Amino acid sequence: MAGAAPEGSQFDARQFDSKMNELLSSDGQDFFTSYDEVYDSFDAMGLQENLLRGIYAYGFEKPSAIQQRGIVPFTKGLDVIQQAQSGTGKTATFCSGILQQLDYGVVECQALVLAPTRELAQQIEKVMRALGDYLGVKVHACVGGTSVREDQRILSAGVHVVVGTPGRVFDMLRRQSLRADYIKMFVLDEADEMLSRGFKDQIYDIFQLLPSKVQVGVFSATMPPEALEITRKFMNKPVRILVKRDELTLEGIKQFYVNVEKEEWKLETLCDLYETLAITQSVIFVNTRRKVDWLTDKMRSRDHTVSATHGDMDQNTRDIIMREFRSADAQDFFTSYDEVYDSFDAMDLQENLLRGIYAYGFEKPSAIQQRGIVPFTKGLDVIQQAQSGTGKTATFCSGILQQLDYNIIECQALVLAPTRELAQQIEKVMRALGDYLGVKVHACVGGTSVREDQRILSAGVHVVVGTPGRVFDMLRRQSLRPDYINMFVLDEADEMLSRGFKDQIYDIFQLLPTKVQVGVFSATMPPEALEITRKFMNKPVRILVKRDELTLEGIKQFYVNVEKEDWKLETLCDLYETLAITQSVIFVNTRRKVDWLTDKMRSRDHTVSATHGDMDQNTRDIIMREFRSGSSRVLITTDLLARGIDVQQVSLVINYDLPTQPENYLHRIGRSGRFGRKGVAINFVTGDDQRMLYDIQKFYNVAVEELPSNVADLL
Q1: How much is the pTM?
Q2: DSSP character for 31?
Q3: Residue 703 sits in a domain of what CATH number?
């Protein structure tokens, strides 16, 4: 039998490990210590409350086998060698150990994590940030292929944890941009891979620059002798949690082989597999970069939708491809619709719909309308990603209005939106575009009379636009009859999901007829939004834009360095006294701050309006009408209302507070420069905000520049 040991010999893994330990250790038996306690729950591990919150929020319910044994010894400051395969929670093990021990009052690098690739380093950064979300951890990934200056700027502002590739980390240490004085934890992740890539000398050089008393963790899926050798140089009686080689395969993964007689027959075999099996997502490995390109071309020529990535690609391209893959751009779930229509007249729309479009002020379709209106009018399921101000709302409104049967006064289209303001804005656009068609539209939103909704619905409407809660209530009461609904649109799907409407959306969909056309429209398209489409949609046309194209054209983006939070007010008032601003929106992060800033601005004789979610619906409506009419020039608000503000004259958005999520930045700045008009976004940035500004620039692949002295010329 191939691979069998010679007769008379027997391989003993335990004996091999024992001999290896003796070879690697100067004192043989006691180089490794053991830590046998097993913790069945995270609560039993003595972790900080806010770390536990982060762990549970990330989706962990109970610790994996490696976490049950590995987290606590690391939190106790012990050196640890852990061997565990990918997918077992290895990354979360050392992230939890680090987060438990950080001193958050000291904004200095206290933990350094090395990884073999940029992608892995960025993934660790993401996990560390998520688990430490409630602790206020500051993490930065130092990797090649990114700006050295940006690394230096962020490191000088202060971080708690640096994750990076050996080359860039050593460069930052050598330049003294990364100060090693406070580093007390040093982790090597995927040590075997780093050694196989020739990073051994760099790892040694980095270790020499660290303080003498540093806790060391070595984490890897496999633990070859070279990896164990490195531990002897760095570690002090480490706890060793190794799994046997025959336990390394992930539970639940069935492994098979296919005999292929000749190399050239592999392609046919592969294509046969993909044509035979229903595969959600898959990864195909080859051994050379050249073969990646060759196989990609061959599969695309046979109409398979594939992505490809390898080391010859620049970092930005690899990031885009990986984001697309993570967002579930699988096999052939999506179809394409490549026709572009340069004019509304070419779209074969009804005459009275065209009249409404032109009367509303559109002259030619925006990029998203050129590609998005026609597939929707043809009854296709559509996923469209486009930022605010590009005519996204008019795209699905036109698609709906084209298909309605106006002789039947029954609800034929249902549109869901995350906020009352946005639902009412969509109602307004739908009514305006359908003015010459006699469309009957109604907005079903919370904060308004249930009886009035019931009265209007019983009289008959063609389209209902609403928030999930009120719409579900109307369906449940049978005031809204779903029998004739043949179009279902989710607008701002990302925001609805982030607000916890997922279950309500599912419940609503269950009540609709089985054959319903679905449109998902949003400014950003996270994986959760794409996941929802799989449950509802049938081979949708997918019109997504890359993240680096998401920032609105025509909007200049700047930042102002404000040393202290207390100085923001003076900076804001100086701006308003200096600039001639038509209308502007100021965003803050809390309702309390809306009230505080409104009082402060009014006390300095600025005419401002304010709106937030604690106000009743009627008050918010009055304030928005005043702002739209121009009687108020300044509106102070929170993210809650970012997506429902559609005012043509807004030329300036000020982020008094940076948003807490990069995705919300787009919705905020989209309030200026509506429909191609020029606008300016100004971000107030304190030392604590440097990290978020960096994240925003990285998320959208844009450079936000310092506010120039001639900003008045841009407004």
Answers
A1: 0.43
A2: S
A3: 3.40.50.300
